[in-house]
UniProtKB/TrEMBL annotation:
Gene3D superfamilies xref list: Flavin-binding protein dodecin (3.30.1660.10)
Species of origin: Methylacidimicrobium tartarophylax
Pfam families registered for this protein in UniProt: Dodecin
SUPFAM superfamilies, alphabetized: Dodecin-like
Protein name: Dodecin
Lineage of producing organism: Bacteria, Pseudomonadati, Verrucomicrobiota, Methylacidimicrobium
Amino acid sequence: MSDHVYKIIEVVGTSDVNVHEAVRNAIHRASKTVHNLSWFEVKDIRGAIHEGEPHFQVEVRMGFRLDT
């Protein structure tokens, strides 16, 4: 059994729908350029109000396994 080594990145996902969609957007976008994504952690939730409507932002940490 080989030992795995992981790298951690942080991205910010956004959505005008809800927090869950912002997380999904972050993961979907990161998965286009980073392979071996294994896990995620929501570090922070914040937002803005545009014309009375919320816009969600989530800071997401993601771990991916480095190639051997």
